[in-house]
Specification:
This protein has about 180 residues and is an alpha/beta fold. It folds into two domains: about 70 residues, no CATH class; about 80 residues, Arc Repressor Mutant, subunit A. It contains five helices and six strands. The strands form two sheets. A four-stranded mixed beta sheet has the order 3-2-1-4, covered by helices on one side. Helix 3 packs across helix 4. The longest helix is centred in the middle third of the chain and has 14 residues.
Length: about 180
């Protein structure tokens, strides 16, 4: 892969609050590198503050425009699988977990142990590491880390807050509105 030549970002509204979208451009083209929701309680520091980029109107960057269109379709219930070039930046282990996340179908959930097994790991020894990789995902919604739940069906941590995780799972029909757990 060539070095990054530029980064651009935008912020768009959604039913779960502002969504920050970032694209990296290099000699091979553009790829979505960031999809981040803010926390509803505004307590969390920006985990991606290390990334510098230029704010643009989505219409000025074709991939941002396409990402916004696909997110709009997702929130309207018309899109279940995203089709965007992604830049997965992390360790080989993290990328393996994130690729496994992309295999968790819309409208379903997976436990950390099930995700570990899905990517060929022993769930008895790797569920916590899988959880940590899940938490480091920089492409929320598109790489659906919100679909991972606790072994007992509880809605465990989510960088944007459990309330946003609940809203995404309700939107997808994986959780009944107002339910505390899936089981």
């Amino acid at each position: 892969m060539s070095g990054v030549r530029g980064r651009v970002h935008t912020v768009v509204g959604s039913p779960v609050g502002p969504v920050h979208l970032g694209v990296e451009v290099d000699d091979d083209g553009s790829a979505l590198a960031l999809v981040r929701l803010t926390r509803s309680d505004e307590r969390a520091a920006d985990a991606h503050a290390d990334v510098t980029s230029t704010f643009v109107d989505p219409a000025d960057e074709p991939l941002l425009a396409e990402a916004v269109a696909q997110l709009d379709a997702y929130f309207a219930g018309r899109l279940r699988t995203f089709d965007l070039p992604l830049r997965l930046v992390g360790s080989a282990f993290q990328v393996r977990v994130w690729q496994g996340l992309c295999e968790v179908p819309y409208g379903t959930t997976s436990t950390y142990g099930e995700l570990a097994a899905r990517v060929g790991l022993d769930p008895r020894t790797s569920s916590r590491a899988v959880g940590a990789a899940n938490g480091a995902n920089r492409l929320a919604i598109v790489v659906p880390c919100h679909r991972v739940i606790g072994a007992d069906g509880t809605l465990t941590g989510y960088a944007a807050g459990v309330d946003r995780k609940r809203a995404l799972l309700e939107l997808e029909g994986a959780l009944a509105p107002g339910a505390a757990t899936l089981f």
